[in-house]
Amino acid sequence: MKLIGPLLFAAALWVGCPPAALAAPSVTLKAEVYDSDGVVTLGDLFDGAGSSADVRVAAKPGLSVVLDAGAVQQLARRAGLDWANARGIRRIVVRTGAESGTASAAAARTGNVEVLTYARSLSTGEIVQPEDLIWGKAAAAPSDAADDAEMIIGLAARRPLRAGSVVSARDVTAPQVIASGDIVTLTYEAAGMMLTVKAKAMGRAALGEGFAAQNLSSKRTVQAVATGPGQAAVGPGADQILASPSTRYALR
């Protein structure tokens, strides 16, 4: 009789535990993602989507659409699928066509070239978002045409950009994070020592760009390199950034 209470308690715990069979099935992102009907689904994106293959992810009004990988991962999870994204992919480009090769895909290879274009007009300084880029066709691609949306997203327009124009690497630059007159924190690091001081920016700068700054205490003007909004490096740290053209700071 004394075992009835513990047995009932254990039974209640067992019933409340979800069986392992209900675990979300793992799916794999397709190496090349295509869509042929203008509606991107989980089945278009993943192998092994099963009964969730028809779940709608996004509309694709043009030749392509760029999706945020984090948002796709959450949608897949809500649909009962588990995408680990072990490679840390941030953007997914979905193009028109089919994995087996449709007539339209063949025409794209033998006819007009596929190029990245602007889906809308952008003003100077405006940050390029995933939905601002779309794949289109042109008779020929300029030598500096961008072929990777990931390299353009998150950068700022150097000048007004017209909708429909071909995306070029020279169209964009790193976002401006320091404006003339801003009060910034200068950081000096060397041999395990770090010092900070407040200064006034004497010019504007994007991430990784140099600018003049005036120490608020000593009034001395020094050369600094922008490392973030209101932040800059001086001394060896600044020299290292300027000496490494491949160094790129990202706010996204």
Supply database-style keywords.
single chain, 252 residues, alpha+beta, Type Iii Antifreeze Protein Isoform Hplc 12, 3 domains, three-stranded mixed β-sheet, 5 helices, elongated
Unreliable segments (pLDDT under 50, ≥5 consecutive)? 1-21, 99-111, 245-252
The oligomerization state is single chain
Mind describing the biggest β-sheet?
A: 5 strands, mixed, barrel
Class inferred from helices and paired strands:
alpha+beta
Write down the Rg.
26 Å
Query: How are the strands of the biggest sheet laid out side by side?
Result: 13-14-16-17-18
Q: Considering DSSP H and I runs of 4 or more, what fraction of the residues is helical? A: 10-25%
Give the strand content: 25-35%
Return the domain count.
3
Shape: elongated
Rounded mean pLDDT score = 78
Count, helices: 5
Separation of the first and last Cα atoms: 63 Å
SSE succession = HEEEHEEEHEHEEEEEEEEEEEH
Total beta strands: 18
What do these coordinates show?
With 252 residues, this protein is an alpha+beta fold. It has 3 domains: 28-96, no CATH class; 112-173, Type Iii Antifreeze Protein Isoform Hplc 12 (Alpha-Beta Complex); 176-242, SH3 type barrels (Roll), CATH 2.30.30. The protein is 17% helix and 32% strand. The strands form 7 sheets. A 5-stranded mixed beta barrel has the order 13-14-16-17-18.
In a nutshell, what does this entry contain?
This protein has helices at about 5-15, 40-45, 70-80, 105-110, 235-240; strands at about 30, 35, 40, 45, 55-60, 65-70, 90-95, 115-120, 135-140, 155, 170-175, 175-180, 185-190, 195-200, 205, 210-215, 220-230, 230-235. The longest helix is centred in the N-terminal third of the chain and has 13 residues, at about 5-15.
